[in-house]
Amino acid sequence: MSKHLDVWKVSKIYETPSGPVEAVSEASFSIREGEFVSILGPSGCGKSTLMMMMAGLEDVSEGVIIERDKEVTGPRPDVGLIFQEATLLPWVSVIDNVLFPVRILKRPRRDYEARAHELLEMVGLKDFHQHRPAQLSGGMRQRVAICRALILDPPLLMMDEPFSALDAITRDEMNVALLDIWQRHPKTGVLITHSIREAVLLSDRVLVMTRRPSTVVCDISIPFERPRDPRIVESAEFNRLCNQLRGYIESGYAADQNNRYRSAAAAVATTE
């Protein structure tokens, strides 16, 4: 498979009143066409920042991101984005929310209405197309957000912890729904998540990032075939992979704590 995304020594440095803060440090990896890759790491490590740079919504401080042989320099319509909050327009219907990207790009609505209804039927919301977001549960609103992200059939879908605000049962249901969507509409995907089990269930590969300034320290291939049976979560291999990833995350945390301890000790020593 050819490369869809190539991230090469990418760093992000924010200028603050107290000085520069490095959020991401020389992260490098590639994602192939049609591959689903999850990015794991501690809270606040820069996972979302990295995704925003990959989507062209944040500038790169150093390094380069290439998508299909072109450098990413800004937002583009061939990327579907799903965030933690559904961010639907509360004053319009479900179907109008799904078709909102069509309206923004000033494309003919009639060319996409059939696809919008097809997507809503696929996620179990066929009978809710005229409802307003306030009439839906959190899981239903997130399903609408997925349909909105897919309405233009983007070759690349990026998701920033899209199910983290949902209860455990609804989150499991959304994971199964996403597996089904991916089978019907395969594309390249990037998922930011804190859930190791979610990453292993959904992904072809899982990347692990360190604490800030973060970089990629682990790249594990997930061996399960597609279409993927959700019951793999009960298998010994699934739990072995989860434990392996947990070990990488915990060892990265321990190394970070040791580095902080050494830095603090050195600072004290220089003042004595």
Shape: globular
Write the CATH architecture name of the domain at 3-73 and 206-271. Answer: 3-Layer(aba) Sandwich
The biggest beta sheet reads: 6 strands, mixed
Please provide the ordered H/E string of secondary-structure elements.
EEEHEEEHHHHEHEHEEH
Q: How do the strands line up in the largest sheet? A: 6-7-8-3-9-10
CATH topology descriptor of the domain at 3-73 and 206-271: Rossmann fold
Query: Regarding quaternary structure, how should these chains be classified?
Result: single chain
**Which regions contain 5 or more consecutive residues with pLDDT less than 50?**
254-272
Q: What is the share of helical residues?
A: 25-40%
Question: Your description of this structure?
Answer:
The protein is an alpha/beta fold and 272 residues long. The chain has a domain at 3-73 and 206-271: Rossmann fold, CATH 3.40.50. Helices cover 37% and strands 24% of the residues. It has helices spanning 47-54, 94-98, 100-104, 113-122, 138-150, 168-184, 196-202, 236-271; strands at 3-16, 19-32, 36-40, 62-67, 70-71, 79-82, 156-160, 188-192, 205-209, 216-221. It has a six-stranded mixed sheet with strand order 6-7-8-3-9-10, with helices on both faces. Strands 2-1-4-5 form a four-stranded antiparallel sheet, with helices on one face. A hairpin with a 2-residue loop joins strand 1 (3-16) and strand 2 (19-32). It is globular and about 50 Å long. It starts with a strand and ends with a helix.
